[in-house]
């Protein structure tokens, strides 16, 4: 029995199938964590979503920003972008079923040793606090998705305060878990930075480089930042290795930390 984690799929179903064959994944005994962004930009978003639904007893996901974007558009909020590949889902006869399944997925999963999120956890949040905050968003998604998605988009507020309330509080929590890469020196989220680690300006730092992080009790497994690539240090495990952009799709055995990779079928250069 093995427990694996795999980086951002974003519709790369062919690579997923090959990677599962490489690790000899067994749905009867093994379990799999997916770091979110199951859909969008790749050519087989529908197949990736159907795979997760079909195997939910062995495959667990957290929501990423592209998954939330799909949900928002399906509820009539947000706009499709030029490179989105969501129409096969949006036009599918079982869209309501897929939408309901997806909106019931969490922003965070955890074991005694690992935490799975899409983008990261604020340095000042301990694991228990992060779990509780993720549940606030999860409740909003389940109880009133129309109101949640009507107010989800936006970059403000960009700094955490326990005094935040209502839609602003939910928006900040969502942005931390699904969009965060770097912070400014005054702990504000910078949503514009998407470059490589070496390009972080001196006025900023990666969220996992913050001193005295409160969640060091667990290893944080995340994706989202394809230009960061694979990283296993500082009690974090970064798994987005650019499968969508000509890189690799990466799996890790969470017990042994052995990595497995399948080269992307995309001809794009993920560094451009």
TrEMBL record:
Record's signal peptide: none
Keyword Glycoprotein listed: no
Gene3D superfamilies: 3.60.21.10
Enzymatic class: hydrolase
Entry keyword set: Hydrolase
Keyword DNA-binding tagged: no
Domain Calcineurin-like phosphoesterase residues, every copy: 5-143
Enzyme Commission number, as recorded: 3.6.1.41
GO molecular function, one term: bis(5'-nucleosyl)-tetraphosphatase (symmetrical) activity
Catalytic activity: P(1),P(4)-bis(5'-adenosyl) tetraphosphate + H2O = 2 ADP + 2 H(+)
Domain of life: Bacteria
Annotated NCBIfam families: apaH (TIGR00668), PRK00166.1 (NF001204)
Family: Belongs to the Ap4A hydrolase family.
Its biological purpose: Hydrolyzes diadenosine 5',5'''-P1,P4-tetraphosphate to yield ADP.
Designated name of the protein: bis(5'-nucleosyl)-tetraphosphatase (symmetrical)
Originating organism: Alysiella crassa
The gene coding this protein: apaH
């Amino acid at each position: 029995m093995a427990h694996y984690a795999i980086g951002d799929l974003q519709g790369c179903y062919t690579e997923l199938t090959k990677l599962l064959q490489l690790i000899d994944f067994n749905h009867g005994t093994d379990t799999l964590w997916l770091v979110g962004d199951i859909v969008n930009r790749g050519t087989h978003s529908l197949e990736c979503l159907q795979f997760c639904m079909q195997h939910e007893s062995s495959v667990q996901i957290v929501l990423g920003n592209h998954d939330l974007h799909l949900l928002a558009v399906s509820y009539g909020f947000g706009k499709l972008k030029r490179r989105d590949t969501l129409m096969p889902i949006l036009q599918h006869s079982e869209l309501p079923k897929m939408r309901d399944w997806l909106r019931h997925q969490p922003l965070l999963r955890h074991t005694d040793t690992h935490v799975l999120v899409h983008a990261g956890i604020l340095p000042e949040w301990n694991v228990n606090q992060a779990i509780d905050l993720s549940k606030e968003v999860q409740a909003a998604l389940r109880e009133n998705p129309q109101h949640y998605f009507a107010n989800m988009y936006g970059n403000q507020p960009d700094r955490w305060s326990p005094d935040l309330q209502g839609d602003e509080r939910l928006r900040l929590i969502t942005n931390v878990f699904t969009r965060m890469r770097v912070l400014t020196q005054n702990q504000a989220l910078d949503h514009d930075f998407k470059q490589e680690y070496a390009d972080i300006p001196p006025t900023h730092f990666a969220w996992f480089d913050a001193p005295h992080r409160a969640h060091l009790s667990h290893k944080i497994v995340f994706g989202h930042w394809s230009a960061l690539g694979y990283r296993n240090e500082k009690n974090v495990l970064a798994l987005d290795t650019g499968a969508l952009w000509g890189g690799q799709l990466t799996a890790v055995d969470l017990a042994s930390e052995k990595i497995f990779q399948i080269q992307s079928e995309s001809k794009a250069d993920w560094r451009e």
